[in-house]
Amino acid sequence: MGISFLYQILDFSRGELMPDYILTQLCEKVISSFGVDKDGAMRSDGMNVAVVVYDTQTQEAYFSGAQRPAIIVKNNELIEVKGDKMPIGRYVKAGEFTRTKLDVYSSLPMAEQAAQLSKYIFNYKGNNLQTDDIALIAFKI
Description:
Layout: H1 2-12, H2 19-34, E1 46-47, E2 49-55, E3 60-66, E4 70-74, E5 77-81, E6 88-89, E7 100-102, H3 110-125
Antiparallel strand pairs: 1-6, 2-3, 3-7, 4-5
Helix pairs in contact: 1-2
């Protein structure tokens, strides 16, 4: 459902697409689609999403996250850019999603960046069992 909504947002958007706008639209679509459960209570299903938009004209990247961070490599270090502490869906403290401009250039080769990201994920997880999927997308500019 989330992917279908993202396609709709991208296909029918008029004007500049920024990650905070995409998350806001996605949240509205998810909330309106869930309605109420069999007991008449409002459903509170949702998801956590991170979105990065890269403008090829200006060579600028922007990030917004719904309970998800972006990890960038800068000066040979991994830097976590935190997302907002609200999911896509109903949330008690609903607000606006934050747009953050990213400095996306790195002097490390992609293989070294991948090794650092793997180490970061391993350290983050610690001794906990992995219960969710992890999706990682890297791109060379």
